[in-house]
Amino acid sequence: MEYPGIFTPFPIGNKTAPNRLVSQAMESNDSGPGGSVSQRGLKRYRKLAAGNWGIVIVEALSVTSESLARKNGMILNRNNLEGFQHLVQEYKKINPEGLILFQVSHSGYKSGSFSRRTTICPGVKDADYLTTEEIENVRKAFIESVLLAEEAGADGCDFKMCHGYFGAEMLRPANTRTDKWGGSFENRTRFLREGIGEIKSRLAKLTRQKSQDFILGSRISLYEGITGGCGTAGPNQIIEDLTEMDRIVKLMDELGMDYVNVSAGIPGVTSEITRPTKPSKHLYLNLARYAKQVKNLNTSLAVFGSGYTILKEEAASFAEENIIDGNVDFAGFGRMSFADPLYPSKLISGEKINYCTACSGCSRLMIRQEHDGCILYDDYYRKLHSEGRADR
Ligand SMILES: Cc1cc2nc3c(=O)[nH]c(=O)nc-3n(C[C@H](O)[C@H](O)[C@H](O)COP(=O)(O)O)c2cc1C
Predict the structure, then answer these.
(1) Top mutation candidate among 274, 366, 374 for ligand 1, by most atoms within 8 Å of CB
(2) CATH number of the domain enclosing 212
(3) Separation between Cα atoms, residue 274 and residue 284, nearest integer Å
(4) What confidence score (pLDDT) does residue 390 get?
(5) Which one in 89, 142, 153, 194 has a CA-CA gap of 20 to 30 Å to 49?
């Protein structure tokens, strides 16, 4: 076995992932009517199931129909529950051991012009400033979506607090609101604390055994790279200072969460920090450093690292090294999961792997609000990309 570390099972909450490879959430912008699961979406997750990832995180699912970053983004509401149930069943039919988590999200300031662009932080232009009560409603929407994910049969949920979305705006020092949602550390983490607290107590009341084992984690941007962003020391600071992010990770542990998915940056603003490209390849080292720093906090959270794709053929040995050295528990792949959904199973079988070349085609499709996937290895997306169709 070439990668014994990668292919050693690892516990996450009360469950066990069969290996350490995570297919990160990747928006595909291909929902059916009303944000439902489409046939194309089902096909994508069936393929990922066949790929034998230890964990697949289903792309950002909006908790409301009001906060979409993608025109065809999926919405996790009761109307769409049956579709999500079917998605989980199909996944488990193919890969009963692999875990499937849903990422729940509110796009906030990242919402498209076709949706409602909102902000939490005072003084931000071109966005509706959310009132105290509206934020409470978002909190309730998150809770309802997480409970629906459990009802759909998912193994757990990823509370999206990264990449400049609503959750990240909430945490950052630039959230200087004067109501209960802003200003102090206590207030900026209230959303997470009260959200997770209520989810845990509602799950505890359910009689299904699997509800008690439902995995809860969150994806955070350790450093956003903007003034007053996550990973800075105050609303007017831009230089990296991770003191407060360490506190947030420890808080997640105290709240009884099961994992932290370590990312960084804000796509579209500080994109290279989130996903290194060819000219910025070595930024992957920052992502590795952030994951190591979180791991060194010695919490009981399982730690996911991000941004392995840019390493192509070297990614597996880097992941292996990180796991063996105890710098991460899981290695997360975003673009690679688009390029070759069968990556983990091919690492074992030795079949030829379609490596992502970081051509940024998937990012261009996303910006153009097209259905999204790999333009290099999938004819459908290649055609979409070359046709260059604007707004569908
Ligand atoms: C097209 C596209 C869609 C993405 N969608 C999501 C998403 O839904 N949720 C999320 O947390 N990150 C999302 N990301 C970020 C990826 O999960 C990942 O963090 C990033 O691509 C860096 O990892 P990689 O170098 O392995 O690709 C997306 C990235 C791309 C390029």
Answers:
(1) 274
(2) 3.20.20.70
(3) 9
(4) 46
(5) 142
